[in-house]
Design a protein that fits this description.
Strand 29 and strand 30 form a beta hairpin. The protein has an eight-stranded mixed β-sheet with strand order 18-23-24-31-28-27-25-26. The protein has a five-stranded mixed β-sheet with strand order 2-1-7-4-5. Strands 8, 9, 10, 14 and 15 form a five-stranded antiparallel β-sheet that branches. Helix 3 crosses helix 4, helix 5 runs antiparallel to helix 6 and helix 13 crosses helix 14. 36% of the residues are buried. It has four domains: 60 residues, Beta-grasp domain (Ubiquitin-like (UB roll), Roll); 174 residues, Threonyl-tRNA Synthetase, Chain A, domain 2 (2-Layer Sandwich), CATH 3.30.980; 240 residues, BirA Bifunctional Protein, domain 2 (2-Layer Sandwich); 92 residues, 3-Layer(aba) Sandwich (Rossmann fold). By secondary structure, the chain is an alpha+beta fold. It is 35% helix and 29% strand. The protein binds one RNA strand of 75 nucleotides through strand 9, helix 6, strand 14, strand 15 and helix 18.
RNA sequence: GCUGGCGUAGCUCAGUGGUAGAGCAGCGCACUUGUAAUGCGCAGGUCGGGGGUUCAACUCCCUUCGCCAGCUCCA
């Protein structure tokens, strides 16, 4: 073999090595290590994801992806969905197939079959999939002309859905690819894992209806969802996560702990905060208010409704009317419940002629708004029709915007850390196609957002063109205890409202200028945040938020007087405490307070009464032993005041 | 809106043509108790609403309301 039969392969670390022409990335992986060859699922050759078995015929850069990488995981799940289709075809001959992509968590395949799939079928399909995996079928890619593929799906393997995909979606492609594994063939771009044997653990999760190409006038297919993992532990962990999420469902815990309710007969999507929930809300609000006044915000209160003039001027009646509650007529004037607080804050801004010396103005309000959400999308506390935003508006000058954004980001970090959320992700959204405001404003504002993120040393994901029509924004998502991401905060520039309401300030030059306006919500809404908080803590709130912080329980009536003494001392120290006087066994009382997730229980029997001390039990942790009452109270006050997270 | 599932006691659920059941919670009585359920008893429901079939409907049929999951993530 002469030297010119070799090609040069460059790796991500910059190293390179020569291989014979026609070598595959799998061969390369094997030459590096056995482990890599085992784990690698797909390769990126010259920036393009390809099958591992594809021969490489020229000098190339090669990168390997395993299951731990997004790219590898997608391929793993994609091939799994093909294996599922094969299993379905074997078990239910005649089934036709729509689309079967990998998704954020797992994969699905849309199936058209006379048979209606049940949970028992899913188990059978799973078993068959593992059987197909054991057969170690090699996945083979075949490229052919589009017309030939159409002919194939019209005659050899009749599937009208694939034909439609080829005739419609893929109409601009000259060549398309098929993937074969054993007797199964599917139309697919790929790439795929080299063999079905890579599939080790799979769980089919659910089956639900879905319309062919999302069109409710078309055929409805059965969509089977599933997920798969190379390691059994990963699958077990995932199933555990699903179970845990179900246990933590805020609607369930909200009922168990008597936190809130909603009433369809009194208006869907409107939240009633029960005493226990109200305590948590008051604590959150107190914290929120103090944080804002400490952070040099001023607090506002504004009305719940406004005349149509306000919403005509703001433009909400033009672009937001469908989401607003219908107006009520008073004195021949139309009044609307507010869907946003901004116009009200602007009204306050306009009560004075503002000077550059007044800026920045940072105005915050816990403002309750009403938005008409479709009944199908309402969901517990997470999607409601009436909610209280922790809203703020910052009016500032051109020179101030960057430092203001930096402050908001720092403020958000502080607030979330205090509430027990340590993982935050940042998303920057830029100018969409339809937008108001001059380009120079967009550039200036977007730069200030980027600079602020960089200044704080924060990584962010870019959503090009994802901004609102009135300005660019940063969204902040937090991760909860189960690793789920929730979008809470948003920091948005607004070039629209200052224009519409003709906001101005007098600059140093004595001339009128338009201020920048930034909308900012941190928690998003009290209702939604409450729901997330419930799930994050699974109802076992940190001491400062717990509706009942301490339960005092005598073992028998003989210690009741002593228990009352202890109870009053704790109560007078400002802690939320309850005395359990019931004549029940101590085991019964403890179980009861444990299920209420009360952080601390104080058990008082003869021993404690005689020694003048207390025995403490902590939620989930059990007996902590004996304490002096005063010392215990001060440690609890410390825990409460520092908002300690357990 | 569409598809599927569900709607029975305060809560969690069983019942499937012969006029409704359990556990927990509640109330009463007894027990005076040492770290996740003491025992016995009582009470509690127009089986989501309306209509129909039937001698008889929680059960079957129609209709309506609500809840849950999904209907976007492109061969």
């Amino acid at each position: 073999m002469s030297n010119n039969e070799n090609i040069k392969i460059t790796f991500p670390d910059g190293n390179s090595k020569e291989f014979p022409k026609g070598t595959s990335s799998l061969d390369i992986a094997k030459s590096i290590s056995k482990g890599l060859a085992e784990d690698v699922l797909v390769a990126e050759v010259n920036g393009k994801l390809v099958d591992l078995v594809m021969p490489i015929n020229e000098d190339s850069s090669v990168k390997f992806y395993k299951f731990a990488d997004d790219e590898g995981r997608k391929v793993y799940w994609h091939t799994t969905s093909h294996i599922m289709a094969q299993a379905v075809e074997e078990l239910f001959p005649g089934a036709k197939f729509g689309v079967g992509p990998p998704i954020e968590n797992g994969f699905y395949y849309d199936v058209d079959s006379e048979h209606r799939f049940t949970d028992e079928d899913l188990v059978k399909i799973e078993e068959r999939m593992l059987d197909i995996a054991k057969r170690d079928l090699v996945t083979k890619r075949e490229e052919l002309k589009r017309e030939d593929a159409i002919a194939y799906f019209k005659s050899k393997r009749v599937d009208p859905y694939k034909v439609e995909i080829l005739e419609d979606i893929a109409k601009n492609e000259e060549y398309v690819s098929l993937y074969h594994q054993g007797g199964f063939t599917d139309l697919c771009r790929g790439p795929h894992m080299p063999t079905t044997a890579k599939l080790k653990n799979v769980k089919l999760l659910s089956v639900s209806g879905s319309y062919w190409r999302g069109d409710s006038d078309r055929q409805q297919l059965q969509r089977i969802y599933g997920i798969s993992f190379p390691k059994k532990k990963e699958l077990d962990d995932y199933i555990h996560l699903l179970e845990e999420a179900e246990k933590r469902d805020h609607r369930k815990i909200g009922k168990q702990l008597d936190l809130y309710s909603t009433h369809e007969e009194a208006g869907a999507g409107l939240v009633y905060w029960h005493p226990n929930g109200a305590i948590i809300r008051m604590e959150l609000e107190d914290f929120w208010r103090k944080a804002h006044t400490d952070g040099n915000y001023e607090l506002l209160f504004t009305p719940h409704m406004g005349k149509s003039w306000l919403w005509e001027t703001s433009g909400h009646l033009d672009f937001y009317k469908d989401s607003m509650y219908s107006p009520m007529e008073i004195d021949e004037q139309l009044y609307y419940m507010k869907p946003m607080n901004c116009p009200f804050h602007i009204m306050i801004y306009k009560t004075h002629l503002r000077s550059y010396k007044d800026l920045p103005l940072r105005w915050a309000e816990l403002g309750t708004v009403y938005r008409y959400e479709k009944s199908g999308v309402l969901h517990g506390l997470l999607r409601v029709r009436g909610f209280t935003q922790d809203d703020a508006h910052i009016f500032c000058t051109n020179e101030q915007i960057e430092s203001e954004i930096i402050e908001v980001i720092r403020f958000a970090k502080y607030v979330f850390h205090s509430l027990g959320f340590d993982h935050m992700n940042y998303y920057l959204s830029t100018k969409p196609e339809k937008a108001v405001g001059e380009d120079s404003l967009w550039v200036k504002a977007t730069d200030s957002l980027i600079n602020a993120l960089k200044h704080e040393g924060l990584d962010y994901k870019l959503d090009e063109g994802g901004g609102a029509f009135y300005g660019p924004k940063i969204d902040i998502k937090i991760k909860d205890a189960l690793g789920r991401e929730w979008q809470l905060s948003t920091i948005q520039f607004d070039f629209n409202l200052p224009e519409r309401f003709d906001l101005k300030y007098i600059g140093e030059d004595g001339k009128e200028h338009r201020p920048f306006m930034v909308h900012r919500a941190l928690l998003g809404s009290m209702e939604r945040f409450f729901g997330i908080l419930i799930e994050h803590y699974a109802g076992a709130f940190p001491l400062w938020l717990a509706p009942i912080q301490v339960a005092v329980m005598p073992i028998a009536d003989a210690q009741l007087d002593y228990a009352k003494e202890v109870y009053h001392k704790i109560r007078n120290s400002g802690l939320r405490v309850q005395l359990d006087e019931r004549r029940e066994k101590i085991g019964y009382k403890i179980r009861d307070w444990e299920t209420k997730k009360v952080p601390y229980m104080i058990v008082l029997g003869d021993k404690e009464m005689q020694a003048g001390n207390i025995t403490v039990r902590a939620h989930k942790k059990g007996d902590l032993g004996k304490f002096e009452l005063d010392a215990f109270i001060s440690s609890l006050k410390e825990e409460k005041d520092t908002k300690k997270i357990n």
